[in-house]
Amino acid sequence: MNNMMEVQNLSFTYKGAAEPSLKGISLPIQKNKVTALIGPSGCGKSTLLRGMNRIHDLYPGHQYDGAIQLLNKDGESYTDILSLKKEAEMIRLRQRVGMIFQKPTPFPMTIHENIAYGLKLSGVKKKADIEEIVEKSLRDAALWTEVKERLGHDARGLSGGQQQRLCIARAIALKPEVILFDEPTSALDPISTLAIEEMISVLREDYSICIVTHNMQQAARISDYTGFMYLGEMIEFDQTDTIFMQPSVKQTEDYISGRFG
Amino acid sequence: MSMGQHISHRFDEDIEAVTSKVLMMGGVVHQQVERAVSALLTCDRVLAEKVIADDVKVNTLDVKIDEMCNRIIVTRQPTATDLRLVMAIIKATNDLERMGDEAKRIARQAIDISKRGVLPELFESIEQMAVRVKEMLNKSLDAFARKDIDAAFTVIGLDKKVDKDYENLTRQQITHMMEDPRKIHASMDLLWSARALERIGDRSCNICEYVIYLVQGKDVRHIDYKELEEHME
């Protein structure tokens, strides 16, 4: 069971839209690998990503077809996350499949509370446990050495890159199995971008990662697999090296080499 | 292979500029080889010295093209075919520069032969080889310019004939050296020149391999001709 998730023939239509935004998408999210989704704006890559932890369903009325299989804890069977209905199941799903957004979204609290808040909500009670997880998450997000002296300060005082790493620490505190990144570095300077990329390559050892990015060199640098999407379809999915050095579909080549349209 | 227009016209211009510089360099190298062989066969010291002096033109283009490729990599981060083109150009340029050095070597032998004033036996036999090698170089540049893999494959096939020419020439000269030791020096000069020509043929094949790599994305270096034949089918 190498696939943590399997998107199978997924179609998705936004509420009130005439046309589906995703048309029969299939791809695997392999365990402990980084999968990148690239494509021009409006191709559906963020829509696909947001389907993968059903964050779309915060607003009802959208329509899904197909299946998104998530590997169960037993490591053998899969559950179609589109079959989940109860609110509690959805919350549980979003703990297992976490998401990091383009703009850092720290809560208006201290650095410490930003991470502890979710833990308390998910039922971690003991103070010692919380302290331990807070430190470990910040270490894993490569932020600990920068903030350990000021855990009680407001998180909004951190730089953009630090805020983004705090959001990643907050997500991994809940021990997800999959982390979805939606353009995590597009608002960051090159150094913070490299810090996040470096962190993603370390996180891969413990998590399965899917990242949407407009920065193709980033996709080439950090991912193992890359999918090129266009107009709601998966045009080509292959190993990243193949996509960037020798793609087999002309549309992919045109896109990555800047000859689109 | 049809490459559409790049969204940035500058990029297309940059690629065109560096490609035409490579072809220009190829033209200069071809001329150098031609003159060197002609200087050898006619014992023309003046022409040979010109070939040696003109090697700097080849070297200057070599450096210039490297600079242009560096600039493209740093500003454009080329991918897929663009990346393979830049790689192919960098490698082809290196081979062309070395061919220029081989031409210079032939010119030096021309000077040595004319200084000594003793001609080797069967001096003209190198001419046939030179014609073939020049053809290979010419066609490899053509294949590169037109990104024509069939032409590239044909050139690689010609290399066997050149190798055969070289072998024959070596055998003949050994015989003559044994018969008349006074001509050993002259024979050696001729063999060095033949060796240089043979290397130019090899390097033309290298360029053709880069053409196949560029078009098909398949690296065909270090495989034998039979494997390549199967691949091309």
The CATH level-2 architecture of chain A is identified as: 3-Layer(aba) Sandwich
Low-confidence stretches of chain B: none
* First-last Cα distance of chain A: 39 Å
Radius of gyration of chain A: 18 Å
- What is the assigned CATH homologous superfamily of chain A? P-loop containing nucleotide triphosphate hydrolases
Instruction: Let me know the largest β-sheet of chain A.
Output: 6 strands, mixed
Shape of chain B: globular
Classify the fold: give the CATH topology of chain A: Rossmann fold
Main beta sheet of chain B, described?
Answer: none
Distance between the termini of chain B: 18 Å
Percent helix range of chain B: over 70%
Shape of chain A: globular
Q: Biggest interface and its residues per chain?
A: A-B, 15 and 17 residues
Q: How much β-strand is present in the residues of chain B?
A: under 5%
Summarize this structure briefly.
By secondary structure, chain A is α/β, with parallel strands linked by helices. Chain A has 10 helices and 10 strands.
Report on this model:
The complex is a heterodimer of chains A (261) and B (233). In chain A, the strands form two sheets. Chain A has a six-stranded mixed beta sheet with strand order 6-7-8-3-9-10, with helices on both faces. With 261 residues, chain A is of the alpha/beta class. Chain A has one domain (3-256): 3-Layer(aba) Sandwich (Rossmann fold). Chain A contains ten helices and ten strands. The mean pLDDT of chain A is 94. Chain A has helices at 45-51, 87-96, 111-121, 127-140, 144-147, 160-173, 190-203, 216-222, 240-245, 250-256, and strands at residues 3-13, 22-30, 34-38, 63-71, 78-80, 97-100, 178-182, 208-212, 225-230, 233-239. Chain B is mostly helical. Chain B has one domain (9-232): Phosphate transport system protein phou homolog 2, domain 2 (Methane Monooxygenase Hydroxylase, Chain G, domain 1), CATH 1.20.58.220. The model of chain B has no long low-confidence stretch (mean pLDDT 93).
